[in-house]
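Consider the following assembly input.
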Amino acid sequence: MKAQRWRLFFAKTEAMRFTSHLDLILAWERTFRRSGLPLSYSEGFNPRPVINLAAPLPLGFTSSGEIGDFWLSELVSENTFSSSIKDSLPPGLEILSLKEIPQLHGNKLPSLTHSAVYWMKLNHPIDELPIRIKEILSAKSIPRVRKGKEYDLRPIIHKLTLIPTGSTGVITLETELSLQPGSTGRPEEVLNVLGIPPHEALIQRTMINLKSIILES
Amino acid sequence: MIDPSQIKSTLHKVLPNVTLPGRYTGGEFNQVVKDWDSIGIKTALLFPEVYDLGMANLGLTILYDQINRSPQYLAERFFVPWFDMEKVMRTEGLPLYSLETKHPISDFDLIAVSLPYESIYTNFLNALDLGGIPFLSSDRDITYPLVIAGGHATFNPEPVAPFLDAVVIGEGEEIILEILDTLASFPNEASKESKLKRLAKLDGLYVPSFYQPVYANNGLFSHLNKIDPSAPDTVMKRIVGELPEPPLKPIVPYINIVHNRAPLEIMRGCTRGCRFCHAGIVTRPVRERSVEDILEAMEALIPNTGYSEIGLLSLSSSDYTQIIPLIESINKRFEGKNISISLPSLRIESVSVDLMDALTGKRRSGFTLAPEAATERLRGIINKPISDQQLLDTARSIYSHGWHTIKLYFMIGHPTETMEDIQAIADLSKQVLSVGREVIGNRAKLHTSVSTFVPKPHTPFQWTKVDSLNVIQEKLDLLQKEVRGKGLKLNWNNPRETHFEAWLSRGDRRLAKVIHQAWINGARFDAWQEGFDFEIWTNAFKSTGLDPDFYSTRKRTTDESFPWDHIDTGVKKSFLLEDYQWSQEGKTRPDCRGNCFACGILPAYNDLRHDHPGELWLCPEVPHLKNKK
């Protein structure tokens, strides 16, 4: 029984960096059970909680921009929801904001994503980085092969820029990549094209942009 | 010395490149982190397996809870790295570190290592090596942590005795705190000898270095010489009078582990007396937890962890006296909350099917039955007397209640077994499948799983032998030929692993050299296909001049002294011998809850039984025999 739909904007931080997508869903289910909030379950022999995350986050990434929809089987006030869930979170999950979605059966999150923004913190300085970025942005196409399939990376990159180095001196790249069925950008691919081994960067997703966010709120 | 912050920063760098990095991070929900500098005695709880296996261990969960409940002590967890991570750790100079605070294992005062089975021994040595800790107790001075082992394998501690400063025999809940109190009562500069002398006075604690084994000219173990006169002649297993409150805030992992659920022990021990069963002897007497306590524990476990599944643990679920009322109450109290229950080890009787039926929200994948032997004659020998008809009736009931697959567990290599008994495994499997076909047609499936019997110390079969590799292979060949066809599936284990298990479980102190040599030759993860290497072990035997068959395929005479005779499980050797003789006469011994057969437990724990009267112990009540001061 679905009575209410909540959208959570959340961070997945260092402590849960190596928790997979499936295990993250399990962590959410357990968080709800601890909180006492009545998560809605599917029917059948093997009932599953009705949880809908916008997009899987690759293992090893952290994120400050995750989105998930959760259905409850009973109506709960925002105050109750907010305080119950916050007290039950495991280390590695933080709630940034939340809202009730009036459309109980509206579009599912994975079909609403448009793009995602990633920050890539580099362990070492890289020579001529601004030039390499310019080359990428001015290229007409960037043919790549991934898992034996050819594709063009260029149209998937919406944005690629250097973030001004603060007092820490850490070089950080920001990129916005397409996040849609059939054209999902991977930040590691961008690093590969830049000549940076992906394991030499710490990658954080900072935002998931939804297509119809205005319509829904 | 490397410190936690250096370890953390190295981990940050290396973890993205190893398999299942979530094994190595810690930081889970309900993890206990105490202020390192304000705690005097620090315990490293070492489970020498990978995280995803070790985290499911109930003993570890209990000790972690028990120690961390005490404000003056702390316990942190250690598991061993998988092959790729070990390589990274050695390259980067990372020592074995705790998941909680990332302290190297050598920073702890006590290493409490769990040795539940023998194939974990080389992982234990590997853990010491990764921690920079010498293997031999005699090579470790007071600057190293004390190394104390416990767990079911340590009921024969001799093969690993030289590596251990002390061994807990039996149940650890109470004695672990007595050990910590003892250590806390010493000044820092106290000698190791003085600490061990004091520890040896605790009930259930064995200090191997106080005893020296003596062997006869023919190579047989003769006896133990006591080096320290104050040490006890035999070490009596430690037990608790009633099951202590279970851990109510167990750690909830972030990655998938085996048995990813909340554990809740409902009963310890078993009254059935299967003659091959090690656990059935060493966990006697049977002590149950009351239905009310179980329900109360569940009420706490669910909101404390968020688990959707509770594993109600015991050696034989259907033997829990109040099992039907328990399941009914659980269903009533947790209805509609999407909680599921798992019940391991159900007996072959229709009530088991009713039980599984009553468990709501359970996916009906497979139903496991363990007849262990396929003929009524052989089941009489091993004292698991079930008639073929009873098995077939139960199978019919299972197939007709919604399960499509039945798994049958058998052992081969039982005493007196013939090829007819092996053929019977195939025949019985086919019979069960055809019962399934009658009920649900071609959807019925039957999986036959075969392992090879290893006679274990402290059991009525401790005098018998393991089949030779050739004989085991001959039996497996027959099964592979006979158990085939649509709907049938056969699993079997590697006969070489059986022999390996037999050497280590029946060994004496001389085997420590073999284990050490095997580790040098690269042995790790002997319980895993990825790790086990028979050649490594046979080479280790060769280089130490010991004969592996002496330990495995040799039948013992009834007057032989065993290297584990000084470890007292409370069950008398004379009782085991009588049961062995009964077995040879084909005589079965009924469940002892109806009729006490005086196995020795009651006189051994007379005081404890007297202090815990009533129905939670399944042994008869006793008047006070001894005078208590």
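Chain A has a mean pLDDT of 93. Ask yourself how this observation constrains the way the partners meet.
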